[in-house]
C-alpha cells in the first residue's frame, strides 16, 4: 500500500475512516460482554475531553465531515467473517471467549445517536444510553477525530510532499524497531488505536513490528488488524469499569469497595493473562494497601499513569509482602511510552518481574516536527464515561494531570481512598 497516494486520493464524497465495528480495541469488547451480562440496565454518558486546549479541533475539522463519519459508523454492523472470527477464534488460549448470547446481541447492534456542538474552538461530543452500547463509541469516535485532524493538516500538501513525509515517518518507526530488536527478552504489543494517525498507518506500523521484531512483537489491541494480519488480539480491562462501578455506589463504604468489586466480577469470567490488575484509577498505593488477599494471586498488573518505575516498585513490594514471587508476575507498562523509556524500564525490571509493554500513540502517531508548527504532533484527547445513572464519574489517577470529575466529588474520592500527595507529570498523550 502506497499510503501517500492513498492520502492524496482520499477526497471522495466520503472516505470512511472507521469501516468495521471491530476496528476497536480488544479490551472494549471484553468489557462490553461483561457489562452486557452484569449491568444491562445501567445508563451512561460518555463525553469527548480534549486535554490539549491549544489544538482547536473545531477550527481544523469541518462539522459536516465529522457528522458524515459519525453517521457512517452508525450504519455499520458485524460482517459474517467478523462474527465468525469472534465466535471461533482462540483468544488468550480460550476458544469461544465471546458467549453466544452476547454475540447474537452484538450482531444486531447499531451504535446509538450522538450529540455534537461547537464551543470555544472545540467539539462537544457526547453519547448517552445503555452502557453496553454507548461504550462502543469511545474508540471509533477518537479514531475519527484524530484522522480528520490529520487530513486537515495534510490537505494542502502536494503528492510528492506527502511521499517525502511518509518516507520520513516510516524511517522513524523503523529506526525505533531496529533499536528494540536489540533488546533481549522483549515483549511488546501495539496499543495505538485510540490516538493513531490513521487506520492505514496503524496497520503499517503493525506490519513493521511483525517483520522487525518477530516473536518479540506479541500482538495488537486492534481487533480488525489482528484479524487481518492473523496475530494475537491483546487487552484486558480499563479505567471505565471502576469509574462506573464507583459512580453507582451509594455510600462511602460501597465506593471504597467498588474497584475490588470490578475485579471480583472479572475474576468470575476470566483467568490466566486476562487477570491483570489496573490499580491507578484512585491511586495505586492505596488500592494495593487495601486490596483483598486473593488479588495478589492474579497474573500481573498494568502501570498506566504516574512514574512507571515507582508504580512497578510498589507492586513488587506488595507481592513480596503477600508471599508472592514477583518474578512470576507480569508487569505491563502502557503510559506514554517511547523507545528510550521502553529500553530503560526493561533494563530496570528484567529478571525481577515478567516485563511487557503496550506501545501506543508514539508508535502509531509519531509525526513530531515533520510538518510546520507541530501540526501533526500527538496531543492528549480522551472519550470517557462522565455519568452513570445520572451520577458523575471520577478518575484520580497516579498523575493529578489526568484527574477528571466535579471538584466536590474529586475531594470526596480523595478522602474515601485516602489519596495523599501526588506528583504532577506532563500529560503527553
Task: List the main descriptive attributes of the protein structure presented here.
globular; 18 helices; 429 residues; nicotinate phosphoribosyltransferase; 13 strands; six-stranded parallel beta sheet; 2 domains
Helix content: 40-55%
Low-confidence stretches: none
Spatial extent as radius of gyration: 21 Å
The CATH architecture designation of the largest domain is Alpha-Beta Barrel
Largest sheet: 6 strands, parallel
CATH superfamily of the largest domain: nicotinate phosphoribosyltransferase
Oligomer: single chain
Strand sequence of the main sheet, in spatial order?
Answer: 7-6-11-10-9-8
Number of domains: 2
Our count of helices gives 18
Terminal-residue CA separation: 28 Å
Under CATH, the topology of the largest domain can be stated as nicotinate phosphoribosyltransferase
Q: Would you count the extended β strands for me?
A: 13
Q: What's the overall geometry?
A: globular
Amino acid at each position: 500500500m502506497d499510503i501517500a497516494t492513498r492520502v492524496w486520493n482520499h477526497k471522495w464524497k466520503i472516505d470512511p475512516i472507521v469501516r468495521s465495528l471491530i476496528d476497536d480495541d480488544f479490551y472494549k469488547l471484553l468489557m462490553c460482554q461483561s457489562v452486557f451480562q452484569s449491568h444491562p440496565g445501567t445508563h451512561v454518558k460518555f463525553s469527548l475531553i480534549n486535554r490539549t486546549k491549544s489544538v482547536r479541533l473545531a477550527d481544523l475539522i469541518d462539522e459536516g465531515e465529522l457528522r458524515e463519519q459519525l453517521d457512517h459508523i452508525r450504519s455499520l454492523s458485524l460482517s459474517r467473517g467478523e462474527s465468525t472470527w469472534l465466535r471461533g477464534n482462540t483468544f488468550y488460549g480460550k476458544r469461544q471467549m465471546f458467549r453466544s448470547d452476547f454475540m447474537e446481541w452484538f450482531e444486531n447492534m447499531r451504535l446509538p445517536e450522538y450529540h455534537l456542538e461547537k464551543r470555544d474552538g472545540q467539539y462537544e461530543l457526547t453519547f448517552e444510553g445503555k452502557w453496553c452500547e454507548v461504550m462502543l463509541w469511545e474508540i471509533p469516535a477518537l479514531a475519527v477525530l484524530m484522522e480528520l485532524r490529520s487530513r486537515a493538516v495534510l490537505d494542502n500538501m502536494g503528492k510528492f510532499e506527502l511521499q517525502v513525509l511518509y518516507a520520513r515517518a516510516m524511517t522513524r518507526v523503523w529506526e525505533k524497531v531496529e533499536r528494540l530488536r536489540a533488546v533481549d527478552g522483549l515483549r511488546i504489543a501495539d496499543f495505538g488505536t485510540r490516538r493513531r494517525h490513521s487506520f492505514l498507518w496503524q496497520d503499517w506500523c503493525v506490519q513493521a513490528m511483525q517483520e522487525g521484531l518477530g516473536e518479540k512483537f506479541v500482538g495488537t489491541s486492534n481487533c480488525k488488524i489482528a484479524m487481518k494480519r492473523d496475530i494475537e488480539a491483546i487487552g484486558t480491562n480499563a479505567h471505565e469499569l471502576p469509574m462506573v462501578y464507583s459512580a453507582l455506589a451509594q455510600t462511602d463504604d460501597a465506593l471504597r469497595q467498588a474497584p475490588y468489586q470490578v475485579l471480583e466480577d472479572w475474576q468470575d469470567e476470566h483467568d490466566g493473562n486476562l487477570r491483570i490488575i489496573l490499580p491507578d484509577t484512585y491511586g495505586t498505593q492505596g488500592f494495593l494497601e487495601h486490596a483483598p488477599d486473593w488479588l495478589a494471586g492474579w497474573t500481573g498488573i498494568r502501570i498506566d499513569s504516574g512514574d512507571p518505575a515507582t508504580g512497578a516498585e510498589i507492586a513488587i513490594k506488595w507481592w513480596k509482602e503477600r508471599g508472592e514471587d514477583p518474578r512470576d508476575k507480569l508487569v505491563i507498562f502502557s503510559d506514554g511510552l517511547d523507545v528510550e523509556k521502553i529500553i530503560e524500564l526493561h533494563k530496570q525490571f528484567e529478571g525481577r518481574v515478567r516485563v511487557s509493554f503496550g506501545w501506543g500513540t508514539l508508535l502509531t502517531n509519531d509525526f513530531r516536527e515533520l510538518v510546520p508548527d507541530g501540526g501533526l504532533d500527538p496531543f492528549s484527547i480522551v472519550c470517557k464515561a462522565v455519568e452513570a445513572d445520572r451520577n458523575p464519574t471520577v478518575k484520580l489517577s497516579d498523575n493529578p494531570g489526568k484527574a477528571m470529575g466535579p471538584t466536590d466529588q474529586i475531594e470526596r474520592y480523595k478522602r474515601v481512598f485516602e489519596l495523599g500527595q501526588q506528583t504532577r507529570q506532563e500529560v503527553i498523550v
